[in-house]
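step 3/5: co-fold with zinc ion
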Amino acid sequence: MRMIFLGTSAAVASAERDNTAILCDDVLIDCPGNVFGKMIRAGYDPLKLQAVIITHRHVDHSYGLPSLLEMLRLSGKKETLKLYVNEDFYFEAKQILSAYELFREDFPSEIVPVSGSDSFFIDGLKIETFPVRHSVPNFGLKVSDSKAVVVYSSDTEPCEEVIEQARSADVLIHEATCAEFVTGRKEGHTCIEDAAKIAREARVKVLCLVHFGSELENLVDELKQKVQGIFNGRVVIPQDLDRLVV
Ligand SMILES: [Zn+2]
Ligand SMILES: [Zn+2]
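step 4/5: write tokens
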């Protein structure tokens, strides 16, 4: 499985980091901003994209969807693109796409509502959702192929569900909006120290931190040391467009 971190920031992007979006093989997880342009910069042909998953209704996870669809259509994509959208945002997402007249015969897309306990296959990937704890209904994702299991927390407070799902996973991609020693805790989000404890408890091999708060941006080395003091496995704090293969 190959992951490309198209964006790694929390809701406020910076000069270095855009809102969090992860391309996992041919599946895009969350869709802020110009993901189309970033796929090209990362050396990935956007026309190969099979599906988009929107974990929750927050703007930093979903606002790029209409423009992505339009860019794919104008670039000649003909195969159906599947849109798996949190059921809590399904109706509004459909309205937004309709308002831009993006449900079209010359570029078919299929929008599917997803609950926090769903399971479906996209190509060779098995995708399972599980509920997490955020300010709006949200789900995390367990993505598996024949070789690896990757769990993504999406936006959440520290929660048991992530630990349960991530148990012995190859990679845990956890949000890290805050750090106790820099910003204090933030409601509905996770500090790097807690993400490290979750990774330790779940005994994952690799902990990858995303949804990085802008206050933390210049402290990456210090934060990494802090996390490594709690969690023994490999710690990755990706920059935008970094990739990880498992
Ligand atoms: Zn977010
Ligand atoms: Zn959110």
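step 5/5: annotate
Helices lie at 35-41, 59-62, 65-74, 90-99, 160-166, 192-202, 220-228.
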